Amino acid sequence: KDSDPMPNGIRFQDRDVTLLAELGELGILDEDTIRSRYFPSDNSGRACPKKLAQYVKVGLVEKFEIRGLKIYRLTSFGAEEVERLTDCPPKRVGRGDPPKENTLLHRLGTIRVRLAFDDACKHAGFESPEWIMEYDPAAGSKTGDALDRRFKLCESFPSGNQKRHTCWADLAGRFVFPTDPP
């Protein structure tokens, strides 16, 4: 669906669709990561910020600035466009207020680790791992449920004195390595 026009006149190129789909898969990305992944030949440094500003202007993404970092997440409208262009709904779309500063920085760190694994698998000719991320909801969960019922990676264990201990992983991936034929 390359160059498929949006109602507001933007023509999507393959890079736009791939970038927006990856943003919907990861939840957030910072401008430096986007630039290195999608604009590696832009020596002027102007193409990436210009394209991201265009996405913000038309409502595909929203931008947050923290400690000199420019962080982007897909909006509901952006998710609709990604689904229209790819026939696949994004997994992680920004809703509500942005997470707090430390949470965003922590998630960026987790995402950078995930991307390093994904890129290494691609380089080695392997499939990318199947990922579960920290805030992925458990099937059938409701907003008022306890955290260990709401999120796939959150576990709660009983301990003494009526207390519970909670373990909440940042990321989990399942690798499938190719096997040699028998």
List the helices and strands and how they pair.
Blueprint: H1 14-26, E1 29-30, H2 31-38, H3 47-58, E2 61-66, E3 69-74, H4 76-86, H5 101-124, E4 130-133, H6 147-150, E5 154-158, E6 164-168, E7 171-174
Antiparallel strand pairs: 1-3, 2-3, 4-7, 5-6
Helix pairs in contact: 1-4
Describe this structure in words.
The chain has six helices and seven strands. With 182 residues, it is of the alpha+beta class. The protein has a three-stranded antiparallel beta sheet, sandwiched between helices. Strands 4-7 form a two-stranded antiparallel ribbon. A hairpin with a 2-residue loop joins strand 2 and strand 3. Helix 1 crosses helix 4. The longest helix has 24 residues. The N and C termini lie far apart (40 Å).
- Percent helix, as a range, is 25-40%
Instruction: Tell me how many strands there are.
Output: 7
Average predicted local confidence, pLDDT: 91
Percent of residues in beta strands? 15-25%
Major sheet size, sense and barrel closure: 3 strands, antiparallel
Q: What overall geometry do the principal axes of the alpha carbons give?
A: globular
Q: Give Rg in angstroms.
A: 19 Å
What class, by secondary structure content? alpha+beta
Uncertain residue ranges = none
Helix-strand sequence: HEHHEEHHEHEEE
Task: Please give the order of strands in the largest beta sheet.
Answer: 1-3-2
Termini separation: 40 Å
* Number of DSSP helical runs: 6
